[in-house]
Design a protein that fits this description.
The complex is a heterodimer of chains A (185) and B (385). Chain A contains 9 helices and no strands. Chain A is mainly α and 185 residues long.
């Protein structure tokens, strides 16, 4: 399983560590671009904004040291830059609804939740071996082990083993992600 | 409102989605769902597999590795500039010492050739480009590339040109061609449009154009020969400027660090627009768009000054030394250092073929006895004559 992005990595970022910087991209770049696009930006604009933020992070020594705070810092940076961009390019009229919705604090947390769930899910899938990933994605879509086995021409046993493997990896991931003891055990 | 850490809610939802939640998780999630209609709406949206599939395809559109490499390039450049400044100061001090040492004894020796050619490591550029495919795969192209196994059918690299044949390639798929310093490349798109890309430039374009418009994105400099098609305007996006054409030949110079965009029209007509307005160019006209104010100024110019590069020549007429060397630096991949800022403003007229040795050109300028050059590795230092 590839490296998790932890509070230790935030600290390394402040020290200009290139591995931590690579990991920052792996874990957040695509997801933050999507976040910006949902606020009404184009593909290119969203990439520019996230690149600017990451460039800023590279030079920034003072980063929030808790993972939650760091994530919120990233989302807030994207949101603020998106709002500025929409205002500056005078597209506010066309995006009035999105603009006002984005300004609301409640919406901000809800948008984070929606984006984070899929971000974690996508990263998790990326980490699974191909066959395991395929089976797990199908089970997410509600397929039974029997149906998956028939579709992929595998034995039901194999499918079940792979599903268990995926779940085990999931639990490990969550344990490092959330300091909630006893969860899911 | 921060009644509950949103990232905990995320973990409860994730556990639910992956069927790994404990009873305690379920209870927490239920509590959150009861809190508001919006929460239930969010949750239901997350459960729909079309939504996740859409998210996954968007995820693929923003490859993190590619952008990480782009940023690394940017950071390296920044570091080089900082180092170069430091080296520049050190060199200035050193030169001061060398000069005083030379002046100390009677300087009756015969003047040697003024360009000190201790090492002539500066060479002209060559056809070279990096092609990036949608998945983030990159392919290096140079004059020896024929056909790369990664390239789809219908895409051929010949000598210095990358050709896209009209085919049934996937619509909506974008390729990016990046030309580093010291490189150039020609691109023939599926509609027959030919584009010369200059050093340090990047063009993003669809493998197969849409029926209603042909849109490309440019950073840096390119000369366009757009294939005529009245039903499908050709649109070039450069920063804040949009250039719309039907069929024409023109040059666009839009290097981000130059803080202006120069559009020079040779044939046909183009419309350029920014947030501050728009204008139509006639052949022989040039538009200068300032990056900060986005205002457009129009002037009559000798277009060959701005377009000769794509025919393998550089022509300069009464241009400040700084602009001349700045342009050449991209092609010869060299650094320039000025002994005094006033030297940058001295104007020169001259012409050189792109594949000629830079030294001959510099010697010609030296004959005018205004400046003196020193070449060391990749750096040209400029002194008062």
């Amino acid at each position: 399983m590839s490296a998790e992005f932890t509070e230790y990595h935030i600290q390394l970022l402040g020290e200009g560590d290139s591995n931590a910087y690579r990991l920052l991209y792996k874990h957040f770049f695509s997801a933050l671009c999507i976040f910006a696009r949902k606020l009404g930006l184009s593909k290119e604009e969203s990439e520019d904004i996230v690149q600017e933020i990451f460039c800023h992070i590279y030079h920034e020594k003072l980063l929030p040291n808790h993972l939650s705070a760091f994530k919120t810092y990233l989302y807030a940076a994207v949101r603020n830059r998106c709002l500025n961009h929409i205002r500056d390019t005078q597209r506010r009229k066309n995006n009035e609804q999105i603009y006002n919705d984005t300004l609301s604090e409640n919406n901000f947390w809800d948008q984070i939740i929606a984006n984070e769930v899929y971000r974690e899910l996508q990263l998790l899938l990326n980490e699974l071996p191909p066959q395991c990933r395929n089976i797990f994605q199908r089970s997410l879509n509600g397929d039974t082990s029997e149906k998956i086995a028939a579709d992929l021409n595998l034995s039901v046993e194999t499918v079940k083993t792979q599903r268990k493997k995926a779940k085990k990896l999931l639990r490990e991931k969550y344990r490092t992600l959330y300091d909630i003891f006893g969860i899911m055990l | 409102m921060k009644t509950e850490d949103p990232y905990r809610i995320v973990s409860y939802i994730l556990a639910k989605l992956t069927a790994t939640s404990s009873p305690a998780d379920e209870a927490q999630l239920e509590k959150w769902l009861q809190e508001s209609e919006t929460h239930r709406e969010i949750f239901n949206k997350l459960l729909q597999k079309e939504n996740f599939e859409q998210y996954q395809s968007m995820f693929e559109e923003h490859p993190d590795e590619y952008h990480y490499l782009q940023m690394q390039k940017h950071i390296k450049k920044e570091k080089r500039i900082r180092l170069f400044k430091r080296v520049g100061y050190a060199a200035a001090i050193l030169i001061l010492f060398v000069f005083s040492a030379l002046l100390w004894p009677q300087s009756t020796q015969e003047e040697p050739s003024r360009i000190s050619d201790t090492s002539t490591s500066i060479r002209p550029g060559s056809p070279f480009a990096i092609l990036t495919l949608p998945g983030g795969t990159t392919i290096q192209l140079d004059s020896t590339t024929r056909r790369s196994p990664i390239l789809q059918t219908g895409i051929i690299s010949q000598q210095d040109t990358l050709v896209y044949q009209r085919s049934n390639n996937v619509k909506g798929e974008y390729h990016t061609l990046f030309i580093p310093r010291g490189g150039e490349y020609i691109l023939k798109l599926s509609d027959g449009t030919k584009i010369w890309l200059n050093a340090e430039s990047e063009l993003k374009y669809p493998v197969q154009f849409e029926a209603t418009q042909r849109k490309v994105y440019l950073k840096g400099e390119a000369y366009f020969e757009v294939a005529k098609n009245e039903h499908s305007p050709f649109i070039v996006i450069t920063g804040e400027q949009t250039t719309t054409v039907l069929g024409t030949s023109f040059n666009l110079r839009a290097y981000p660090e130059e803080a202006q965009i120069l559009t020079t029209l040779e044939k046909g007509s183009v419309q350029i627009s920014t947030s501050q307005g728009n204008t139509i160019l006639k052949p022989g006209e040039q538009a200068r768009t300032l990056s900060n104010s986005q205002t457009i100024e129009k002037t009559q110019v000798n277009t060959s000054l701005y377009t000769a590069w794509h025919l393998g020549k550089y022509i300069f007429i009464d241009q400040p030394l700084e602009e001349i060397l700045h342009t050449l630096a991209r092609w010869y991949n060299m650094n320039i250092w000025y002994d005094h800022p006033d030297l940058k403003k001295i104007q020169f007229t001259g012409e050189l073929r792109k594949y000629d040795d830079i030294q001959e050109f510099l010697e010609k300028i030296e004959h005018l006895e205004k400046v003196h050059f020193q070449i060391q590795d990749q750096t040209v230092s400029v002194f008062r004559y």
